[in-house]
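Hi support team,

I've been running sequence recovery on a batch of backbones for a student project. Most finish fine, but this one hangs at about 90% for roughly twenty minutes before it completes. I'm not sure whether the input is malformed or the queue is just slow. I've pasted the structure tokens below so you can try to reproduce it. Let me know if you need the job ID as well.

Thanks,
M.K.
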């Protein structure tokens, strides 16, 4: 079963034909069955021929959950991807539904100073099947009964694993399967300008696939070049001006709710007057919403978490500049499931 999760609908039909010599009807029924489509389930029940075919390949060989923690309805689970190494995913309760935060890599190569995942270094990319499995396993948890949103904000830089990310997006949004519209999927990046440009190219070349309806979240955290270089080494590869040009050329910076700026509040580091001036300058010409994120300390961090009063004050200053801004309330921080804490070994 696991290997078939690597293929979007048209690719699965082709793969089934080439590897099994089966007609597209077999691939269609398999895709629908893998992702719980009622039509796929009906075919499985009613046709002995399809039943024999599916029984042959539908073994539950998906990565298993090897760790699970629950904090006030927020659930972090770890999937066993290989010996001793797991991917971390988080189910986040919302009003009337849930959001799933998925990982795209094991570890990350960019080493952001505030992020536990970066301390692991990059172990490897996750395959399409490994990313999709996180969604399938999440749907088996009672807390994800009404799963509506997917955010690629877990371990890793999604745009560094571009091809597997795109194939995953095609699978998740396919109406014949999970049917999670791209408008309910957010892709977060630390500032991978080349990846943003590739995504922009897909938006233009494959308009019918609606990649432009995704939400693009930029983990900016500081718009001061020197400060950002210290916090996020990726700035040495993609300086702020290069990053801004890639954003301006994308559809996300001109559409309502297309671009979200993730801004980390580290007291004394990202909340000064010069930081606000730099943020204002960076956002000039971009249409964006700001998510203000109170810093979640990790083991060995030189910084403390801000008080709620400090974050409220920063929020007020950003709002006074005329920007749409909301404070993202941390969930799961005591079990190391909040922003920047995945992969922590503490």
């Amino acid at each position: 079963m696991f290997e078939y999760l690597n293929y979007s609908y048209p690719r699965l039909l082709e793969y089934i034909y080439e590897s099994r010599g089966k007609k597209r009807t077999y691939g269609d029924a398999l895709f629908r069955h893998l992702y719980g489509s009622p039509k796929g389930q009906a075919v499985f029940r009613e046709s002995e021929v399809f039943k024999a075919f599916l029984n042959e390949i539908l073994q539950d060989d998906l990565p298993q959950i090897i760790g699970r923690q629950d904090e006030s309805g927020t659930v972090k689970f770890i999937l066993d991807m290989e010996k001793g190494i797991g991917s971390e995913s988080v189910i986040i309760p919302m009003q009337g539904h849930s959001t799933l935060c998925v990982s795209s890599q094991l570890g990350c190569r960019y080493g952001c100073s505030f992020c536990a995942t970066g301390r692991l270094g990059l172990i490897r990319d996750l395959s399409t099947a490994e990313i999709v499995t996180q969604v399938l396993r999440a749907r088996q948890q009672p807390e994800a009964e009404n799963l509506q949103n997917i955010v690629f904000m877990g371990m890793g830089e999604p745009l560094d694993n571009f091809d597997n990310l795109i194939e995953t997006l095609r699978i998740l949004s396919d109406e014949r399967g999970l049917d999670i519209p791209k408008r309910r999927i957010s892709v977060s990046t630390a500032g991978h300008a080349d990846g943003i440009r590739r995504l922009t190219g897909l938006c233009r070349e494959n308009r019918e696939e609606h990649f432009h309806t995704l939400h693009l979240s930029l983990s900016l955290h500081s718009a001061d070049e020197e400060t950002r270089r210290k916090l996020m080494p990726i700035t040495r590869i993609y300086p702020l001006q290069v990053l801004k040009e890639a954003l301006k050329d994308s559809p996300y910076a001109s559409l309502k709710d297309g671009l979200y700026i993730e801004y980390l509040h580290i007291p004394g580091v990202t909340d000064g007057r010069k930081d606000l001036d730099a943020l204002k300058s960076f956002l000039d010409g971009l249409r964006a919403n700001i998510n203000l994120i109170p810093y979640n300390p990790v083991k060995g961090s030189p910084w403390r978490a801000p008080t709620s009063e400090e974050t409220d004050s920063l929020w007020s200053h950003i709002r006074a500049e005329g920007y749409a801004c909301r404070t993202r309330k941390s969930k799961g921080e005591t079990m190391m499931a909040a922003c920047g804490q995945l992969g922590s070994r503490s």
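--
Follow-up from support: It reproduced on our side and the slowdown came from queue contention, not your input. DSSP finds twelve helices and twelve strands in the chain. No action needed from you.
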